[in-house]
Amino acid sequence: MLLYILRRLVLLVPILLGLTLLLFIVARILPGDPVGLAAGPNATPELIAQMKREFGLDQPLPLQYWNYLTGLVSGDWGMSVFTRRPVFADILEYLPATIELVFASLFIAVVVGIPLGLLTAVYKNGPLDYATRTVALGGIAMPRFFLGLLLQMAFAAWLDILPLSGRYPLIESPPDHVTGLYTIDALIAGDWSAFQIALSHLALPAIAMALSPLATIMRMMRSSTIEVLQQDYVMTERALGLSNRLILFKYVLKNAMTSTLTVIGLYVSWLLGGTVLVETVFDWPGLGLYATQAILTQDFMPVIGVTLVIAIIYLVAMLVVDLLYGVFNPKVRYA
Amino acid sequence: MTMTPIAIPKRTQSARLENWSRAFYRFRQSWLSIVGLAIVVLLVVIAIFAPWIVPYPEHVVGGTNTGARFQPPSANAWFGTNALGQDMFSLVLVGSQVSLFSGLAVVFIAIVVGTAVGAIAGYFGGWVDEVLMRITDLLLTIPSLILAMAVAAALGTGVWNMIIAISITWWPAYARLVRGEVIVKKEEQFVVAAHALGANWLRILGKHILPNIVSPIVIKASLDMGFAILTVASLGFVGIGVKPPTPEWGTLLSGARSYMPDYWWTAVAPGIAIFLAVLAFNLLGDGLRDVLDPKARR
Amino acid sequence: MALLDIKNLNLAMRSYEGETQILHGIDLKIERGEIWGMVGETGSGKSLTGLSVSRLIASPPGRYLAGSIEFQGRDVLKATDKEMRMLRGRHIGMIFQDPTTNLNPAFRIGTQLVDVALHAGHADPSVLGLGAGASRGDFKKAAKRVAVEMLEKVGIPKAADRIDDYPHQFSGGMRQRVLIAMAMIGKPDLLIADEPTTALDVSVQAQILRLIHDLVAERNIGVLLITHNLGIVAQICSHVAVMFRGRILEAGKVNDVLKRPSHSYTQALLNSVPTVHTKRGELMGLSGAMRETSA
After folding, report:
1. I need a labelling partner for C174 at 20 to 30 A (CA). Which of A27, A74, A242, C199 fits?
2. How close, in Å, is residue C294 to chain A by CA atoms?
3. Chains C/A: 3 or more C-beta pairs closer than 8 A?
4. Which of B134, B146, B264 sits opposite A153 (nearest CB)?
5. Considering only alpha carbons, which residue of chain B is nearest residue A158?
6. C118 to chain A: which residues are within 8 Å by CB?
7. Is the CB of A205 inside 8 Å of chain B's CB atoms?
8. What is the CB-side half-sphere exposure of residue B277 using CA atoms within 13 A?
C-alpha cells in the first residue's frame, strides 16, 4: 500500500515535467508582449530591453526553460511582471483562500448530494424525488457566475444577511495564520466571532460553486443506489431482519459510493478551474482571481505557476480517489 | 429433401425508416427531451432571424440612447435598458448568434481533431498511441477553463480566437473516447475481414470503423453543446473573448455586475438566456442518449 | 398449534399488463422436525410462497386476495412491520439460490454475521447467551463469539481467522455455508431455503444438503425447501408438496407421494427425472398439452 503510493508519487514527476514543458512552449509561442504592457505605452526601447534582461527574456528558449525548471525546484517560480513579486510568494499567499473555497464547496456537494441521492432512490417517483430531480436539472445548467450574482442579489442586497463579497472585512485583522484557512484558523484560535465572520463570507461563493457538483453527485448516487437496491444481498439482509436504516446507510451506501467517487474526483478539477469565475464574482482573493488578473495582462509566469499548482492538486486528488476505491471495493488490490 | 419457397414478409417501411421511427418513439417518451428540442429549435430560429426581429437594430451595432439609461422592463423594452440606454431584449436576442455559433464550432473542431488523433492512436497502437495519448493526458490534467482563458488572452480578442482557444482544451476528451471505441471495434470480425480483403488503413478506419462509432460521439457532442455555450459565456464574463459592441451573453452579464442590485434586469436577462440554452442542450442530449444508447437508460 | 399454517393463500401481482393471480389457494402445514420439499417448475409460485411467509413481497406490486399465514399461531399478513422484523432472522431464517450474489461484496463476512446476530440478540438476548440487562459491549462481544461458533458449525476451517475475510475470498460452496450460518445464527424455528444448491457443483450440493439436514435434526426446526429437483426431495425431505401454476396438486409424506403419485402431473414430473437405469428413449419431457390438461 505504502509502496503503491510512493510509486504513484514518483510517476507524477514525468507528468509534471511534461506539463511544465507544454506550458512553457505554449507561453512562449503565443504572441503577446507582457513587458510592453507592464512598462506602459511611454516606455523607451532601452527601458524595455532592460526589463527583458531583468526577467531573462532575452536568452534562447531552451536555456530559458532550463532556468525555469531549476528555478521551480528551488522555489523560484519566476517573477510576475504585473505584481512585481515572485510568483511563488504570490501563490503561497493566494492558495489557502482557494483551498478553503474549493473544499467548502466540495464538502457541501458531498454532504448534501449523497444523502439526497440515497433518499430519492428509496422514495423513487415520489414528490421529493421529482422536486430534487427538477432542481438538479437546473443546477447542472446554471452558470456558476450567474448563480453567484443571484445569490449576492438575494442574500447580500435584499435580505442583507450575508456580506456581498471579499473574504474578511478589510478593517479587521483575520485570525492568526496557522493553516491560512480562516474558518479553521478561527476554530484553532477558539475565536467564535471570527469563525462566524469567516463563514459568512465563505457561504455564498461556496454555495455558488457547489450547486452543479451537488446535482451531479445526487443524480449519480440516485442511479447507483437504485441499482444496488435490486441486488440479491439486499433481499438477504431484509430477509434476516436487518433494519431499513442499517441496510441503507451501511450496506447499500458503501456499494453505491464506488461509481459516485469517480464523479467526485472529476469535480475537483472542475471546481479548481471554476475558481476563476466565482472568485471574480465575489472578489475572493485566491488563485483564480490572481490567474484572471495575470491572464488579462498577459503575464505568463503566474499563469504557468497557478496551472502547475492546480494540476498538482488535481493529480493528488486522483490518487486519493484511487486509494478510496480500495476502501469501498475490497476487490481492488494495489500492486 | 424438398425445397419450399420461403415467403419474405412484405414491409410497409424500409428497415432504416423503421429504425428512425422507433428512435423517435423512444425520444417522444420523455417530455423533457421534447422541451429541450423545442427550446433548441427556438434558439436556432432566433439566432438566424435575430437581425430582422429585434426591436432596436441600431443598439445591436453599438448605437446608444443615453437619454433612456436603466429603464426597468416595460412594454417598450421588455428586458429594460442598460447603462448606455440600449434595449436588453435586442442585445440578448442577437447574443444568441455568438453563443450558438461558437458552441457549435468548438464541438465541431473538437470532434474533428479528437477523432483524428484518437482513431490514429487506437488503430496503430505502439509508440504512436503512446506519444499521442501522453499529450492528451497532459492536456486533460490542466483545468480547461484556465488554459482556454490563457490561450484566448494571448491570441487577442475575436470570436475565432476564442473558438480556437476553447477547442484546444476540448479535443482530448474526444480523442480518449474515440481511441477506446476504435480499439474495441478493431478486433471485430468485419474489420478483420476487410483487412483480409486488402483494404488499406484509411479505408478500414473511414469505411468500417468510424461509421460504427458515431453514436457515442453524437451523444457526447450533444451533451457537450450546452457546456461549450457555458464556456463561451464564461470567457466573456471574465473579460476575454468577444468585445463590444458585438453582444455576447457572458460579456453582457459581466457589464451588468457593476450596476447590481439596483439595475438587476441588466444581469437577469442574459443570465437566464445562458441558463436556458445550456438546459435545453442538456435535455436534448439526455434524450438523444436514451435513443442511441438504450442500455444507458436509467 | 402448527409451526407454520398457510391457509387458502391467494396472491396477485401487478405488472404492465395488469394484475395476474399467481397463487390460487395454497394450503400447507409444517410442524417442527419436518422437512418439506416444495417442487414445481419455474413460475409455479414456489418462491413467492416462500417469500410470503417472511412477507418479503412488496405491495404494490403484490396483493393478497385471501387467506392467512399463521406462524406459531399468529397471522404474519396482519402483523406490523416491526413485529415482522422481529420474526425475520430470529424466528424465520432464509437461504437463497446464488451464494455469489447473496453476500454483500463490500463487507467482511464477520460484519454481516455479527449484524444479523445482533439483530436476533435484540429480539431475544438468550440467542447470544445473554440476560436482559446486558450492555452494548456485552452484545458486541457475544455476537462476535457466536458468529465464530456458527462458522465452525457450518464447516468453515479456521473460522476465527476467516471471519475478517471478504466474500470474494471464498469459493461458491464456502459462501453458501456462510449464508447458512447467517440464516441459522438467530436460532430460527423455521428455515426457508429457496433452491439452496442449484448454483453449486454437484459434489458440493451433497455436502450442503447434509449440512442443512444435520442442523435441522440437531435443533428440531421446521424447513421449507424450495427446489425443482426431485432427487433432492427424495434424499432429505420428510414431506413434499407438488406445485403447479399457483396450486398445490398434492402434498404428503415423501414415501407416499413419490411411490404412489395420485396426480398425473406428479407422475409426469417423476418420469422426467433421468436415472442411471433410464434407457435411451424412456426419458420423458412435459409436453405443453400435458401441462394444459393438468391445470
Report:
1. A242
2. 33
3. yes
4. B264
5. B261
6. none
7. no
8. 35
DSSP state of A86: B
Closest residue, chain A, to C181 (C-alpha): A240
Q: Does B67 touch chain A (CB under 8 A)?
A: no
Q: Pick the range with the lowest mean pLDDT from A156-160, A284-288, B79-83.
A: B79-83
B265 interface with A at CB cutoff 8 Å: no
Å between B120 CA and nearest CA of chain A? 22
Encode pLDDT of C77-106 as tens digits.
988 888 999 999 899 999 998 888 999 999
- Cβ pair A282, A204 in contact under 8 A: yes
Contact between chains at A239 and C56 (C-beta distance less than 8 A): yes
Q: Tell me the angle at which helices B126-141 and A2-29 cross, rounded to the nearest 10 degrees.
A: 80
Q: Specify the pairing of strand C35-39 against strand C62-71.
A: unpaired
Q: Which residue type is seen at A86?
A: P
Whether B131 contacts chain A with CB within 8 A = no
> What percent of chain C lies above the pLDDT cut of 90?
31
Cα three-residue angle A121-A125-A129, rounded to 5 degrees = 60
The CA distance from C211 to C196, in Å, is 11
Q: Which of C54, C94, C119 sits opposite A242 (nearest CB)?
A: C119
Q: Do A141 and B275 touch (CB under 8 A)?
A: yes
Query: Quick one: cell of C179?
Result: 449464508
**Contacts with B, A 108-127, CB within 8 Å:** none
| Interface contact flag, C101 A242, Cβ < 8 Å | no
Report the pLDDT value the prediction gives residue C43, as an integer from 0 to 100.
79
| Residue type, position C153, single letter | K
- Pick the range with the lowest mean pLDDT from A54-63, A73-82, B166-175, C205-214: A54-63
Give the mean model confidence (pLDDT) for residues A300-307: 84
Shortest distance between the Cα of C166 and any Cα of chain A, in A, equals 7
Chain B closest-CA separation from residue A141 CA (Å):
5
Parallel/antiparallel/unpaired status of strands C190-194 and C222-226: parallel
Q: What are the chain A neighbours of C56 within 8 Å (beta carbons)?
A: 235, 238-239
**Which among B134, B144, B153 has CB closest to A273?**
B144
Cell reading at C25: 389457494
Please say whether the beta carbons of B143 and B104 come within 8 A.
no
Distance CA(B290)–CA(B287), nearest Å, equals 5
pLDDT score at C294: 36
Phi (first) and psi of residue A46, to 5 degrees: -65, -45
- List, as one string, the DSSP characters of chain B: ----PPPPPPPSS-HHHHHHHHHHHHHHH-HHHHHHHHHHHHHHHHHHHHHHH-S-HHHHTT---GGGTTPPS-SSSTT-B-TT--BHHHHHHHHHHHHHHHHHHHHHHHHHHHHHHHHHHHHH-HHHHHHHHHHHHHHHHS-HHHHHHHHHHHH-SSHHHHHHHHHHHHHHHHHHHHHHHHHHHHTSHHHHHHHHTT--HHHIIIIIIGGGGHHHHHHHHHHHHHHHHHHHHHHHHTT-SPPTTS--HHHHHHHHGGGTTTTTHHHHHHHHHHHHHHHHHHHHHHHHHHHH-GGG--
Which residues lie closer than 8 Å to C69 by C-beta, 6 or more apart?
C4, C5, C6, C7, C9, C52, C53, C55, C75, C76, C77
For the CA atoms of C156, C162, C167, C173, the dihedral, rounded to the nearest 10 degrees, stands at -20
Do the chains A and B touch each other, judged by at least 3 C-beta pairs below 8 angstroms?
yes
Q: Which of A138, A139, A113 minimizes the C-alpha distance to A256?
A: A113
* Shortest distance, CA A256 to any CA of chain C (angstroms): 10
Pairing of strands C74-75, C62-71: antiparallel
Give chain A's domains with CATH numbers: 2-73 (no CATH), 88-328 (1.10.3720.10)
Our CA dihedral for A18, B170, B143, A282, rounded to 10 degrees, sits at 160
